[in-house]
Structures are given as structure tokens and as C-alpha cells.
Specification:
Elements lengths: L1 H5 L4 H16 L1 H14 L9 H16 L4 H9 L1 H34 L8 H12 L7 H7 L4 H27 L7 H26 L3 H36 L1 H28 L4 H12 L3 H11 L8 H33 L1
Helix pairs in contact: 2-11, 3-11, 3-15, 4-10, 4-11, 4-14, 5-9, 6-7, 6-9, 6-12, 6-13, 7-9, 7-14, 7-15, 8-9, 8-13, 8-15, 9-10, 9-13, 11-14, 11-15, 12-13, 12-15, 14-15
Length: about 350
């Protein structure tokens, strides 16, 4: 199949497609932001992205992740169980608890001590959306960021893989536990949805790579997959913006700024606490950087789909924190990876 679609392309066409894929991988965050802005003013562009279509697009993105997994990655998981366990526990404890602390915890504290409501009418969507993001597995783009900052890429792939495989069980359980008092949570439905749109596509991609990884056409298809993955993520974000644009206009700029501030704090604290965990366990500099990025960057695309699917009626604006996280995590991850790399270059210059 890969030969049918890829090999007949003329070399010049394939080279253009490959270069486009590399460009999208480099400028993912800015491309996502551009799509979000354009969709806000021309919402009809992505009104078709909803429901089953949205889930299928996310499934395709997860398939592209599975296509990068090899038996060597599985051997790494088997050889480094303690490191993976530490990272995964940090992922599924720190980010959900930070999300809860920034929303429910902070609001309760303000009402108890200062006798005022922290978020006002915007409380429920921010709580549900941010907790949903915090309870999702690591983002696929975190592997790219680990590579850019000279981190431990194998460890990054291992953490992302394990957190994704555990997501069908852990994500619904955590959301029910942390947000169940704010809105009704369909944990069983969420489990089945995550199973279908994450675990199944990742498994198909892995086995496809296992059996066809040496095929030249398959390798060419793998090389251009990042472009389609980014385009898929852009469609999901565009669909969310198109669906909530009218409600967002009613809520106004204040609501958006509150959401962005909370997402910024959640993401930044994830990076900081993730790095701290690595320091506590005596990890190397490369592994410290990797666990920082893995903990801080979530699969916000999955959170967006889950919010659109399970809270569209009870809490429709919950997709906004997830959509904002989609763009911001990519931007902040790029900034952090560049900062780490620049520090290395400065140190090498001083030593030289």
C-alpha cells in the first residue's frame, strides 16, 4: 500500500512533500496558531470537524506515533522499567494535581480566606478543561522537543508510549476523581473512546512498522507522516474554534485571558516539577530535560476530542482550555528546548 501511494511520486514531488513535512514539524506551534486565528474569523472552514470525524483524525495522529515505534523501543522499555515507572508516575500525579490546585484548590482557598470567587461564571469550564488536559498522557511532540534539547530521546519515547498505553484506564479514572463533583463524567465511555482513538491506532502503527519497516516505500511514507500529523492536529483545533467561536465571543477577552493564564501556569509548573523529580532521583542532565518536557507537555489533542465528545452539552466551553493547550504546549516546548540547547552551546563556547 505504501509503495502504491509513495513510490509512483516523481522524485521532485516527493522531495517537496518531504520538505513540507519538515517545515511543518519545525513550525508546528505557529501553524496551529495561524489556523486558530483564521478559523476564528472564517469558522466555516472547519465546521466539518466534529464527532466521529474528529475522533478519526485523532486516531490517525496516534497511528503516526505508532509508526515510529520499533522493537528497539520495546527493548528500551524492558531494560529501563524503573526510569519509565518514575516518569509515568510523575506524569499522572503531578499534572492532574497541579490542574486541580490551580482551579478547585485555588478557588476554594479564595472563597474560604478572602470571601470572593476566583473565576466567577467561568469556573466550571476552566476546571473541567484543565483537569482533562492534566489527566491525559504525554504529547507526541514531546519526543521532538527532547531531541531538539539534546535530551534522552529513547527515554522520551518510552514515557510517551507507556503513558499512552495506560491512558484508557488512568485518564477516565483521574477525571472522574478530580472533576466528578463539577460535572457528570462518563468514565466507561471515555475509556472506550481512548481505547479506540489511541491504543488501537498506536498498536496498528507499531505492528505495521514491525512487519514493513524495511520496505523502501514504507520508509518514505514514514518520513512524510509528520506533515499529515500536524495537519490533523490543526483540523482538530480548527474544529474546536469553529464550534465554540460564538460562545467565546459572548464570554469575551477576559475569559480567554483567564484560560491562557491558567494554561500557562499549569504547563510551566509541569516543566519545573518534572525537572525537580529528575534531580531528586539523580537523573543525568539529558534525562532531567526529558522528564521535564514529558511531564509538562500533554496530549492536548486527545483532551480536546474528549471535551468535545463527552462535555459538549454539560460543559461546552471546556474545550477552550484544551484547545489553548494544543497551541501553547507546542510553543512553550519549543522555547524550553531552544533554551536548553543554547545553554549547552554557551557552556561549550566557554570551555572552548
Amino acid at each position: 500500500m505504501c509503495q502504491f501511494f509513495i513510490l509512483p511520486l516523481r522524485p521532485i514531488m516527493y522531495k517537496l512533500l518531504y520538505n513540507f513535512s519538515q517545515w511543518l514539524s519545525t513550525y508546528t506551534s505557529w501553524f496551529i496558531i495561524a489556523i486558530a486565528v483564521v478559523t476564528y474569523f472564517v469558522p466555516n472552514l472547519f465546521t466539518w470537524v466534529h464527532g466521529t470525524t474528529q475522533s478519526c483524525i485523532l486516531g490517525f495522529i496516534m497511528l503516526t506515533m505508532g509508526l515510529t515505534l520499533t522493537m528497539q523501543d520495546m527493548r528500551i522499555l524492558a531494560a529501563r522499567p524503573l526510569d519509565i515507572l518514575i516518569g509515568t508516575c510523575a506524569q499522572y500525579s503531578l499534572m492532574p494535581l497541579i490542574a486541580w490546585s490551580l482551579t478547585i484548590g485555588a478557588s476554594t482557598l479564595c472563597e474560604t480566606v478572602f470571601h470572593f470567587s476566583l473565576f466567577g461564571n467561568a469556573f466550571q469550564p476552566i476546571v473541567v478543561g484543565l483537569i482533562l488536559v492534566g489527566c491525559c498522557p504525554g504529547g507526541v511532540s514531546s519526543n521532538i522537543m527532547s531531541y531538539l534539547c539534546r535530551g534522552d530521546v529513547a527515554y522520551s519515547v518510552g514515557m510517551t508510549t507507556v503513558s499512552t498505553l495506560l491512558a484508557p484506564v488512568i485518564t477516565p479514572m483521574l477525571v472522574l476523581w478530580l472533576a466528578g463533583e463539577q460535572v457528570e463524567v462518563d468514565a466507561i465511555g471515555m475509556f472506550l473512546n481512548i481505547l479506540i482513538v489511541t491504543l488501537l491506532p498506536v498498536s496498528i502503527g507499531f505492528f505495521a512498522n514491525l512487519f514493513y519497516g524495511h520496505n523502501e516505500g514504507f520508509k518514505k511514507a514514514q518520513a512524510v507522516m509528520p506533515a499529515f500529523s500536524v495537519l490533523g492536529l490543526a483540523c482538530i483545533v480548527g474544529g474546536v474554534i469553529a464550534a465554540v467561536r460564538d460562545k467565546l465571543m459572548i464570554e469575551g477577552l477576559t475569559f480567554f485571558l483567564i484560560v491562557f493564564a491558567v494554561v500557562l501556569c499549569h504547563n510551566s509548573l509541569g516543566y519545573l516539577t518534572g525537572y525537580s523529580v529528575g534531580k531528586i532521583f539523580g537523573f543525568s542532565k539529558a534525562k532531567n530535560r526529558t522528564i521535564s518536557i514529558e511531564v509538562g507537555m500533554q496530549n492536548a489533542g486527545l483532551a480536546t476530542v474528549l471535551a468535545s465528545t463527552f462535555f459538549a452539552i454539560s460543559c461546552p466551553l471546556a474545550v477552550i482550555p484544551a484547545a489553548v493547550s494544543c497551541a501553547w504546549h507546542s510553543i512553550s516546548g519549543t522555547i524550553l528546548a531552544t533554551w536548553f540547547r543554547n545553554r549547552d552551546e554557551e557552556e561549550e563556547t566557554v570551555k572552548g
